[in-house]
Amino acid sequence: MLKLMKYEFKQNALSYLGLFLVFLSLSLVVPVMHREMNAYLISMLLQTVFVILAFVILVGVFVNSGRTYLNSMFKRPGYLTMTLPVTTHQLVLSKVIPGMFWMIISLIVVVLGIFLFAFTSLEASVEIVLEAFGDMFSLWFQMLCEYPFECIMYVVGLLGALTKIMMSLYMCLTITHTSWIKNHRTALAIALFVVIQLLSGNILFNGESFSVMGLLVQKFVIYDFDSYFQTYSLQLVISAALQWIQCIIPYVIIWYCLEKKLEIQ
Fold first, then answer.
1. What is the mean pLDDT of residues 125-140?
2. Judging by beta carbons within 10 Å of its beta carbon (0-12, 13-18, 19+), is residue 237 exposed, middle or buried?
């Protein structure tokens, strides 16, 4: 399993790291060029590229995880994958863990890039930037000291929500590559995934989400930490548990399909 995970990490590492480096570089360069250049159209074009690249990172890493899973499991390499001396559980985990790792890293990179873009746009000095980041980390550390259990539950719930979405994608790709479905497998997998996200509240309409996690996130952005943690401590535990319980269903379906109903193209 460890060798499989190592291969999964190495397969996309160079392309991801290169994309992250370009994005972080643009977060520093674009604001400077916007101030220094008289060409308004060019500076706006660069800002548009920055926004598009942020979107590409978040969505592209997720889509590429699905593409890698599809190719390694159900295309020609799938014949080799299925003959490896590993259990189905190890095989699934070797796909999920690297996918989740790159998803989390992409989120961190995008958030960091947006912060750098904002500070550079305000022409803040290095000292001000470091002070702002220091204040932010101090706030997080204070929250962690005062509400350690609630902070841990929030992170656990967030990781569970991301894992649930990733598992749902793999489940849809797996279901559509069984003996039950013969044609238009990728299109049906995408349609099934969208329907599942709509039902689970992960896709917003008019800025509203009716999922448990979505409601908690909306409450969290009020930045009233005392009120939030005192009021929603139990809800955080329940939400975190529900997110991980919901990961079990797609996992079991993936395992059953790979064991009993798999068809490799």
1. 69
2. middle
